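fyi for ur records
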Amino acid sequence: MSNKDYWWAKWLLLTILVMTINKSIAGGAKMDNALANVRLESSHLDDGAYVNADPQVKQDMSKLGGIIKRFIFEKRIDPVPIKMPLSQIDIKALDEHSKDAVYRLGHSSMLLKLNNQIWLTDPVFSERASPVQWMGPKRFHAVPLELEGIKTIKGVVISHDHYDHLDKSTIQLLKDRVEYFIVPLGVDKHLLDWGVPKEKIHVLDWWQEITIDEIKFVATPAQHFSGRGVFDGNETLWASWVIKTSQHSLFFSGDSGYFDGFKLIGERYGPFDLTMMETGAYDKDWADIHMLPEQSVQAHLDLNGRVLMPIHNGTFDLALHPWYEPFARLSKAATSHNIEIATPIMGEKVLFNQSRVNQRWWAGISQVVNELRLPRPDQS
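which gave:
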Protein backbone atom coordinates (compact mmCIF):
# COMPACT_ATOMS: atom_id res chain seq x y z
CA MET A 1 0.00 0.00 0.00
CA SER A 2 1.39 3.39 -0.97
CA ASN A 3 1.66 6.24 1.51
CA LYS A 4 -1.12 8.06 -0.35
CA ASP A 5 -3.43 5.06 -0.14
CA TYR A 6 -2.62 4.68 3.54
CA TRP A 7 -3.75 8.20 4.26
CA TRP A 8 -6.96 7.69 2.30
CA ALA A 9 -7.75 4.58 4.34
CA LYS A 10 -6.89 6.36 7.57
CA TRP A 11 -9.09 9.33 6.62
CA LEU A 12 -12.08 7.11 5.83
CA LEU A 13 -11.79 5.02 8.99
CA LEU A 14 -11.32 8.11 11.16
CA THR A 15 -14.33 9.75 9.52
CA ILE A 16 -16.48 6.73 10.36
CA LEU A 17 -15.25 6.82 13.95
CA VAL A 18 -15.87 10.54 14.33
CA MET A 19 -19.33 10.33 12.76
CA THR A 20 -20.22 7.55 15.18
CA ILE A 21 -19.50 9.78 18.18
CA ASN A 22 -20.33 13.12 16.59
CA LYS A 23 -23.42 13.79 18.70
CA SER A 24 -21.19 15.06 21.46
CA ILE A 25 -18.47 16.78 19.43
CA ALA A 26 -20.35 18.29 16.49
CA GLY A 27 -23.75 19.21 17.82
CA GLY A 28 -25.89 16.60 16.12
CA ALA A 29 -29.42 16.44 17.44
CA LYS A 30 -31.51 13.63 18.86
CA MET A 31 -35.26 13.81 18.53
CA ASP A 32 -37.29 14.84 21.55
CA ASN A 33 -40.88 13.78 22.22
CA ALA A 34 -42.40 16.96 20.80
CA LEU A 35 -40.54 16.58 17.54
CA ALA A 36 -41.42 12.90 17.37
CA ASN A 37 -45.10 13.87 17.40
CA VAL A 38 -44.51 16.18 14.43
CA ARG A 39 -42.65 13.45 12.57
CA LEU A 40 -45.56 11.05 12.96
CA GLU A 41 -47.67 13.35 10.80
CA SER A 42 -45.65 12.32 7.75
CA SER A 43 -47.08 9.58 5.56
CA HIS A 44 -43.61 8.25 4.68
CA LEU A 45 -42.51 7.34 8.18
CA ASP A 46 -41.94 3.67 8.90
CA ASP A 47 -41.16 2.35 12.38
CA GLY A 48 -39.78 5.69 13.52
CA ALA A 49 -37.60 6.36 10.46
CA TYR A 50 -38.23 8.19 7.21
CA VAL A 51 -38.28 6.05 4.07
CA ASN A 52 -38.02 6.72 0.36
CA ALA A 53 -41.01 6.53 -1.96
CA ASP A 54 -39.55 3.19 -3.01
CA PRO A 55 -39.19 1.44 0.38
CA GLN A 56 -36.70 -1.00 -1.11
CA VAL A 57 -34.14 1.80 -1.42
CA LYS A 58 -32.34 1.91 1.91
CA GLN A 59 -28.96 2.99 3.17
CA ASP A 60 -27.33 0.53 5.52
CA MET A 61 -23.87 -0.68 6.50
CA SER A 62 -23.88 -3.81 4.33
CA LYS A 63 -21.52 -2.38 1.70
CA LEU A 64 -19.23 -0.50 4.10
CA GLY A 65 -16.48 -3.13 4.05
CA GLY A 66 -16.33 -3.18 0.27
CA ILE A 67 -16.30 0.60 0.08
CA ILE A 68 -13.38 0.85 2.53
CA LYS A 69 -11.48 -1.80 0.55
CA ARG A 70 -11.98 0.09 -2.68
CA PHE A 71 -10.82 3.39 -1.13
CA ILE A 72 -7.66 1.63 0.02
CA PHE A 73 -6.78 -0.35 -3.10
CA GLU A 74 -8.39 1.35 -6.11
CA LYS A 75 -6.14 3.67 -8.06
CA ARG A 76 -7.11 7.33 -7.61
CA ILE A 77 -6.99 9.58 -10.67
CA ASP A 78 -6.73 13.34 -10.24
CA PRO A 79 -8.45 13.42 -6.84
CA VAL A 80 -8.04 17.21 -6.65
CA PRO A 81 -7.43 19.88 -9.31
CA ILE A 82 -4.19 21.84 -9.52
CA LYS A 83 -6.01 25.16 -9.26
CA MET A 84 -9.69 25.99 -9.47
CA PRO A 85 -10.75 29.13 -11.34
CA LEU A 86 -12.75 31.47 -9.15
CA SER A 87 -14.76 34.66 -9.64
CA GLN A 88 -15.12 36.70 -6.46
CA ILE A 89 -18.67 38.00 -6.07
CA ASP A 90 -18.85 41.79 -5.93
CA ILE A 91 -21.15 42.49 -2.98
CA LYS A 92 -21.89 46.06 -4.08
CA ALA A 93 -22.80 44.92 -7.57
CA LEU A 94 -24.88 42.11 -6.09
CA ASP A 95 -26.90 44.63 -4.09
CA GLU A 96 -27.32 47.03 -7.00
CA HIS A 97 -28.09 44.50 -9.71
CA SER A 98 -31.86 44.05 -9.93
CA LYS A 99 -32.04 41.16 -12.41
CA ASP A 100 -32.63 37.65 -11.11
CA ALA A 101 -29.48 35.54 -11.20
CA VAL A 102 -27.77 32.53 -9.65
CA TYR A 103 -24.20 32.05 -8.46
CA ARG A 104 -22.41 28.81 -7.59
CA LEU A 105 -20.60 29.12 -4.27
CA GLY A 106 -19.31 25.54 -4.33
CA HIS A 107 -20.63 21.98 -4.07
CA SER A 108 -24.42 22.41 -3.57
CA SER A 109 -24.17 25.89 -2.06
CA MET A 110 -25.96 28.35 -4.34
CA LEU A 111 -26.69 32.06 -4.04
CA LEU A 112 -30.02 32.96 -5.63
CA LYS A 113 -30.85 36.62 -6.36
CA LEU A 114 -34.64 36.54 -6.70
CA ASN A 115 -37.01 39.50 -6.49
CA ASN A 116 -34.11 41.59 -5.16
CA GLN A 117 -33.70 39.12 -2.30
CA ILE A 118 -30.75 36.90 -1.47
CA TRP A 119 -31.40 33.22 -0.81
CA LEU A 120 -28.85 30.48 -0.15
CA THR A 121 -29.16 26.73 -0.65
CA ASP A 122 -27.23 24.25 1.51
CA PRO A 123 -24.54 26.77 2.53
CA VAL A 124 -21.28 25.10 3.60
CA PHE A 125 -18.50 27.63 4.08
CA SER A 126 -16.21 25.61 6.36
CA GLU A 127 -12.83 24.35 5.17
CA ARG A 128 -13.95 20.73 5.40
CA ALA A 129 -17.23 18.86 4.91
CA SER A 130 -16.78 16.90 8.11
CA PRO A 131 -17.92 16.60 11.72
CA VAL A 132 -14.60 18.21 12.70
CA GLN A 133 -12.24 20.62 10.95
CA TRP A 134 -9.00 18.76 11.63
CA MET A 135 -9.82 15.94 9.20
CA GLY A 136 -12.14 15.05 6.38
CA PRO A 137 -12.69 16.23 2.78
CA LYS A 138 -11.03 19.62 2.27
CA ARG A 139 -12.41 22.14 -0.21
CA PHE A 140 -10.58 22.75 -3.48
CA HIS A 141 -11.26 26.49 -3.52
CA ALA A 142 -12.17 29.43 -1.32
CA VAL A 143 -15.78 30.56 -0.94
CA PRO A 144 -16.22 33.30 -3.59
CA LEU A 145 -18.23 35.49 -1.23
CA GLU A 146 -17.35 37.80 1.66
CA LEU A 147 -20.28 37.34 4.01
CA GLU A 148 -19.26 40.33 6.12
CA GLY A 149 -20.44 42.58 3.29
CA ILE A 150 -23.97 41.18 3.26
CA LYS A 151 -26.15 42.67 5.96
CA THR A 152 -29.35 40.75 5.27
CA ILE A 153 -30.00 37.37 3.70
CA LYS A 154 -33.66 36.70 3.09
CA GLY A 155 -33.47 32.98 3.58
CA VAL A 156 -31.65 29.65 3.60
CA VAL A 157 -33.05 26.45 2.08
CA ILE A 158 -31.69 23.12 3.35
CA SER A 159 -32.12 19.81 1.50
CA HIS A 160 -30.97 17.40 4.26
CA ASP A 161 -28.64 17.10 7.22
CA HIS A 162 -25.49 15.50 5.81
CA TYR A 163 -22.28 17.40 6.57
CA ASP A 164 -21.69 18.55 3.00
CA HIS A 165 -25.15 20.20 3.02
CA LEU A 166 -25.75 21.27 6.61
CA ASP A 167 -22.74 22.83 8.33
CA LYS A 168 -23.00 23.87 11.97
CA SER A 169 -20.35 26.60 11.77
CA THR A 170 -21.95 28.14 8.69
CA ILE A 171 -25.42 28.12 10.23
CA GLN A 172 -24.11 29.81 13.37
CA LEU A 173 -22.32 32.37 11.22
CA LEU A 174 -25.49 33.14 9.28
CA LYS A 175 -28.25 32.82 11.88
CA ASP A 176 -28.33 36.48 12.95
CA ARG A 177 -28.48 37.88 9.42
CA VAL A 178 -30.93 35.35 7.90
CA GLU A 179 -34.67 36.03 8.12
CA TYR A 180 -35.95 32.56 7.24
CA PHE A 181 -34.72 28.99 7.28
CA ILE A 182 -36.78 26.51 5.23
CA VAL A 183 -36.01 22.87 6.02
CA PRO A 184 -37.46 19.33 5.73
CA LEU A 185 -39.08 17.64 8.72
CA GLY A 186 -36.73 17.10 11.66
CA VAL A 187 -33.87 19.30 10.43
CA ASP A 188 -35.27 22.14 12.54
CA LYS A 189 -34.02 20.35 15.67
CA HIS A 190 -30.42 20.80 14.53
CA LEU A 191 -30.97 24.49 13.91
CA LEU A 192 -32.63 25.01 17.27
CA ASP A 193 -29.73 23.30 19.01
CA TRP A 194 -27.35 25.65 17.21
CA GLY A 195 -29.12 28.80 18.35
CA VAL A 196 -31.43 29.63 15.45
CA PRO A 197 -34.61 31.26 16.83
CA LYS A 198 -37.66 29.05 16.41
CA GLU A 199 -39.69 31.80 14.72
CA LYS A 200 -37.21 31.91 11.83
CA ILE A 201 -37.61 28.22 10.96
CA HIS A 202 -40.25 26.80 8.63
CA VAL A 203 -40.51 23.00 8.46
CA LEU A 204 -42.07 21.22 5.47
CA ASP A 205 -42.98 17.68 4.53
CA TRP A 206 -42.90 16.50 0.91
CA TRP A 207 -45.44 18.36 -1.26
CA GLN A 208 -46.00 21.09 1.32
CA GLU A 209 -45.61 24.69 0.18
CA ILE A 210 -44.77 28.03 1.71
CA THR A 211 -44.74 31.48 0.07
CA ILE A 212 -42.47 34.20 1.40
CA ASP A 213 -42.55 37.66 -0.18
CA GLU A 214 -44.06 36.32 -3.40
CA ILE A 215 -41.59 33.44 -3.75
CA LYS A 216 -43.06 29.94 -3.47
CA PHE A 217 -41.03 27.07 -2.02
CA VAL A 218 -42.23 23.48 -2.34
CA ALA A 219 -40.55 20.56 -0.57
CA THR A 220 -40.56 17.77 -3.12
CA PRO A 221 -39.41 14.14 -2.83
CA ALA A 222 -35.85 12.92 -3.29
CA GLN A 223 -34.38 9.42 -3.09
CA HIS A 224 -31.69 9.61 -0.44
CA PHE A 225 -31.20 9.20 3.33
CA SER A 226 -30.20 11.31 6.33
CA GLY A 227 -28.10 11.31 9.46
CA ARG A 228 -25.04 12.89 11.03
CA GLY A 229 -23.72 9.68 12.58
CA VAL A 230 -23.05 6.26 11.08
CA PHE A 231 -25.78 4.63 13.13
CA ASP A 232 -28.43 7.35 12.79
CA GLY A 233 -31.75 5.92 11.70
CA ASN A 234 -33.02 8.43 9.11
CA GLU A 235 -34.55 10.56 11.85
CA THR A 236 -34.80 13.63 9.60
CA LEU A 237 -36.30 14.00 6.15
CA TRP A 238 -34.47 14.74 2.89
CA ALA A 239 -36.00 16.78 0.07
CA SER A 240 -35.58 18.47 -3.26
CA TRP A 241 -37.03 21.95 -3.74
CA VAL A 242 -39.20 23.77 -6.26
CA ILE A 243 -38.65 27.54 -6.15
CA LYS A 244 -41.05 29.79 -8.10
CA THR A 245 -41.31 33.54 -8.61
CA SER A 246 -43.72 35.36 -10.90
CA GLN A 247 -40.98 35.37 -13.54
CA HIS A 248 -38.95 32.22 -13.06
CA SER A 249 -39.20 28.59 -11.97
CA LEU A 250 -36.22 26.72 -10.48
CA PHE A 251 -35.57 23.20 -9.25
CA PHE A 252 -32.90 22.34 -6.66
CA SER A 253 -32.32 18.60 -6.45
CA GLY A 254 -30.47 18.30 -3.15
CA ASP A 255 -29.07 14.75 -3.14
CA SER A 256 -30.97 11.97 -4.87
CA GLY A 257 -30.74 8.79 -6.81
CA TYR A 258 -32.69 8.64 -10.04
CA PHE A 259 -36.36 7.75 -9.51
CA ASP A 260 -39.76 8.34 -11.07
CA GLY A 261 -40.45 11.18 -8.64
CA PHE A 262 -38.70 13.59 -11.01
CA LYS A 263 -41.35 13.01 -13.66
CA LEU A 264 -44.11 13.55 -11.11
CA ILE A 265 -42.51 16.82 -9.94
CA GLY A 266 -42.22 17.94 -13.55
CA GLU A 267 -45.89 17.19 -14.18
CA ARG A 268 -46.99 19.11 -11.10
CA TYR A 269 -44.64 22.10 -11.17
CA GLY A 270 -42.75 22.18 -14.48
CA PRO A 271 -41.51 23.47 -16.77
CA PHE A 272 -38.37 24.88 -15.11
CA ASP A 273 -36.13 27.66 -16.40
CA LEU A 274 -33.20 26.14 -14.51
CA THR A 275 -32.63 22.80 -12.84
CA MET A 276 -29.74 22.61 -10.37
CA MET A 277 -29.04 18.88 -10.48
CA GLU A 278 -26.78 16.75 -8.33
CA THR A 279 -23.95 15.47 -10.53
CA GLY A 280 -21.03 14.22 -8.49
CA ALA A 281 -19.91 11.89 -5.66
CA TYR A 282 -21.58 8.97 -7.43
CA ASP A 283 -20.43 5.36 -7.42
CA LYS A 284 -21.65 1.87 -8.28
CA ASP A 285 -21.90 1.05 -4.55
CA TRP A 286 -24.35 3.86 -3.85
CA ALA A 287 -25.98 4.42 -7.26
CA ASP A 288 -29.49 4.32 -5.79
CA ILE A 289 -28.93 7.45 -3.68
CA HIS A 290 -26.60 9.51 -5.94
CA MET A 291 -27.32 9.89 -9.65
CA LEU A 292 -24.84 9.14 -12.39
CA PRO A 293 -24.33 12.10 -14.76
CA GLU A 294 -26.42 10.49 -17.47
CA GLN A 295 -29.23 10.04 -14.94
CA SER A 296 -28.99 13.70 -13.97
CA VAL A 297 -29.63 14.54 -17.62
CA GLN A 298 -32.62 12.19 -17.73
CA ALA A 299 -33.99 13.70 -14.51
CA HIS A 300 -33.72 17.15 -16.12
CA LEU A 301 -35.74 15.87 -19.07
CA ASP A 302 -38.32 14.34 -16.71
CA LEU A 303 -38.63 17.69 -14.94
CA ASN A 304 -39.17 19.49 -18.25
CA GLY A 305 -36.22 21.79 -17.61
CA ARG A 306 -34.71 24.29 -20.04
CA VAL A 307 -31.16 24.84 -18.69
CA LEU A 308 -29.35 22.27 -16.55
CA MET A 309 -26.69 23.32 -14.03
CA PRO A 310 -24.68 20.43 -12.55
CA ILE A 311 -23.98 20.87 -8.82
CA HIS A 312 -22.61 18.70 -5.96
CA ASN A 313 -19.19 18.75 -7.62
CA GLY A 314 -16.01 20.79 -7.97
CA THR A 315 -15.46 21.54 -4.26
CA PHE A 316 -14.92 18.36 -2.20
CA ASP A 317 -13.45 14.97 -3.10
CA LEU A 318 -16.19 12.62 -1.92
CA ALA A 319 -15.93 9.64 -4.27
CA LEU A 320 -13.50 7.58 -6.30
CA HIS A 321 -14.13 9.19 -9.68
CA PRO A 322 -11.84 11.97 -10.97
CA TRP A 323 -12.99 15.40 -9.82
CA TYR A 324 -13.66 16.56 -13.40
CA GLU A 325 -15.51 13.46 -14.58
CA PRO A 326 -19.01 14.69 -13.60
CA PHE A 327 -18.59 17.75 -15.85
CA ALA A 328 -17.19 15.73 -18.76
CA ARG A 329 -19.81 12.99 -18.63
CA LEU A 330 -22.75 15.33 -18.12
CA SER A 331 -21.57 17.62 -20.93
CA LYS A 332 -21.41 14.67 -23.31
CA ALA A 333 -24.82 13.32 -22.29
CA ALA A 334 -26.44 16.76 -22.50
CA THR A 335 -25.04 17.31 -25.98
CA SER A 336 -26.54 14.04 -27.17
CA HIS A 337 -29.96 15.24 -25.99
CA ASN A 338 -29.50 18.81 -27.26
CA ILE A 339 -29.80 20.16 -23.71
CA GLU A 340 -28.40 23.56 -22.78
CA ILE A 341 -26.20 23.37 -19.70
CA ALA A 342 -24.78 26.04 -17.40
CA THR A 343 -21.29 25.33 -16.09
CA PRO A 344 -20.08 28.63 -14.64
CA ILE A 345 -16.88 28.88 -12.64
CA MET A 346 -17.49 29.26 -8.93
CA GLY A 347 -18.80 32.76 -8.18
CA GLU A 348 -19.77 33.61 -11.76
CA LYS A 349 -23.16 35.21 -12.32
CA VAL A 350 -25.68 33.35 -14.47
CA LEU A 351 -28.73 35.25 -15.70
CA PHE A 352 -31.89 33.37 -16.59
CA ASN A 353 -32.08 34.93 -20.05
CA GLN A 354 -28.39 34.41 -20.73
CA SER A 355 -27.76 32.09 -23.65
CA ARG A 356 -23.98 31.52 -23.27
CA VAL A 357 -23.59 29.98 -19.83
CA ASN A 358 -21.65 26.85 -20.73
CA GLN A 359 -17.91 27.13 -20.10
CA ARG A 360 -15.52 24.18 -20.34
CA TRP A 361 -13.33 25.64 -17.60
CA TRP A 362 -12.39 22.20 -16.29
CA ALA A 363 -10.56 21.34 -19.51
CA GLY A 364 -6.79 21.50 -19.25
CA ILE A 365 -6.40 21.62 -15.45
CA SER A 366 -6.30 17.86 -14.88
CA GLN A 367 -3.14 16.74 -13.08
CA VAL A 368 -2.67 13.22 -14.35
CA VAL A 369 -3.40 11.40 -17.62
CA ASN A 370 -6.46 9.24 -17.09
CA GLU A 371 -5.03 5.74 -17.12
CA LEU A 372 -8.41 4.06 -16.65
CA ARG A 373 -9.75 5.49 -19.93
CA LEU A 374 -12.40 7.62 -18.30
CA PRO A 375 -13.36 10.81 -20.16
CA ARG A 376 -10.57 13.40 -20.09
CA PRO A 377 -11.64 17.02 -19.53
CA ASP A 378 -10.81 17.87 -23.14
CA GLN A 379 -12.57 14.88 -24.69
CA SER A 380 -16.17 15.20 -23.55
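Residues 3-20 form the longest helix (18 residues). thats all i got for now
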